[in-house]
Amino acid sequence: MPNSYFPRWRLADDTQPGALIAPDERLSWPKNIAMGAQHVVAMFGSTVLAPLLMGFDPNVAILMSGVGTLIFFLFVGGRVPSYLGSSFAFIGGVIAVTGYAGSGPNPNIGVALGAIIACGLAYTLIGLLVWAANARGGAGANWVEALMPPVVTGAVVAVIGLNLAPIAAKGAMGASGFDASMAIVTILCVGGIAVFTRGMVQRLLILVGLILSCLIYAVLANGLGLGKPMDFSGVAAAPWFGLPRFAAPVFKAQAMGLIVPVAIILVAENLGHLKAVSAMTGRDMDRYLGRAFVGDGVATMVSGAVGGTGVTTYAENIGVMAVTRIYSTLVFVLAALIAIVLGFSPKFGALIQTIPGPVLGGMSVVVFGLIAIAGARIWVVNQVDFSENRNLIVAAVTLVLGAGDFTVKLGDFTLGGIGTATFGAIILYAILGRKRRA
């Protein structure tokens, strides 16, 4: 175990091209700042898109992504490189409990915030159990993996995307033929960047695709009058610095019952993050798993308390680390500070609000589809054997429950499709496992 809670970051020798910079090493401060800015750019597209799809203030989401990253940094003692951004796992539940129509601020945001806080609390409690198991010399990660093997986590992640599919399709169709055409153009822009570009541009496909689609929309709508013009008057009127639009939570049992199961998804995401970082750095991160869960859970609660989205460890930033081979945790402190500064810029938030609805609709199709495929990727990477009937039944039932939004009502308590699919997958896997061994 380390002798001190925080590492003593030593200056790394980065003179050799492609040299690996360990989590407890650091670059010169100018390079640290540059790398921090790059991580902000990497997380930006998804962290902004998620609140827009839920009707949250993107400035608050950006601000709380920075605050959440610092909270995570403190809980893991600066030993796990990670950036926390807006989680897409909450979108379906938030839209369901608020009845959000998909345009402008969400009028029922408080109900969603209360449920997000409850989810963060459940996540934190799971983390405390794992943390305690690790502290007693046990393998806290083992029982998490036994409860949620790849066949379960893959199915649950896929369900999130499938459950959101009707929302994405409705947003892409829009109110006119022009709206539907622009949604298709947006899909082609993101797809083209993903396939025909390389390097950092390819890694930033969401952000670059969003910018390119908005430029095309502005030419066709503002220039040629083919659709509703983009309105930049709010950007001109907004001040450079000011407070974002904070919101207070409202706690309702029905909403909490629908969103709390998302904690299982966050556990799976964080577990995958630590496994990926362990593989890339050659260091065992399992002993920090409980602390990582608690850090992410507390960050989610703090974010929800002021009007922000739930947060999770970001795969986009893992990609940046994989490319640069720079894993210094100090880089993420600087990235968090940059995000906090951006969060206090109303002009920045006003610019985000100019994104046209058809562009967001097209982005929804891509992002929700990628979430569904990410679940399938978990099966492929972990070589899940679907010739085994237990795996086949668990995956099949989970996908249909989630995609069909199978809802269970017990009095005032309601469990929506994602929650039903999540708990159903865990319980079904356990039951079928016992039966097979009998």
From TrEMBL:
InterPro entries in the record: NCS2, Xan_ur_permease
Molecular function terms from GO: xanthine transmembrane transporter activity
A GO CC annotation given for this chain: plasma membrane
The keyword Cell membrane belongs to this UniProt entry's keyword annotation: yes
Location relative to the cell: Cell membrane
Membrane topology listed for this record: Multi-pass membrane protein
Transferase among keywords: no
The entry's keywords: Cell membrane, Membrane, Transmembrane, Transmembrane helix, Transport
Primary localization: membrane
Pfam families with a match to the protein in the record: Xan_ur_permease
TM annotation in the entry: 60-76, 83-103, 109-134, 146-168, 180-197, 204-226, 246-268, 288-306, 326-345, 357-380, 413-432
PANTHER family for this protein: PURINE PERMEASE C1399.01C-RELATED (PTHR42810), URIC ACID TRANSPORTER UACT (PTHR42810:SF4)
Family: Belongs to the nucleobase:cation symporter-2 (NCS2) (TC 2.A.40) family.
Name of the protein in question: Putative pyrimidine permease RutG
Organism: Bordetella pseudohinzii
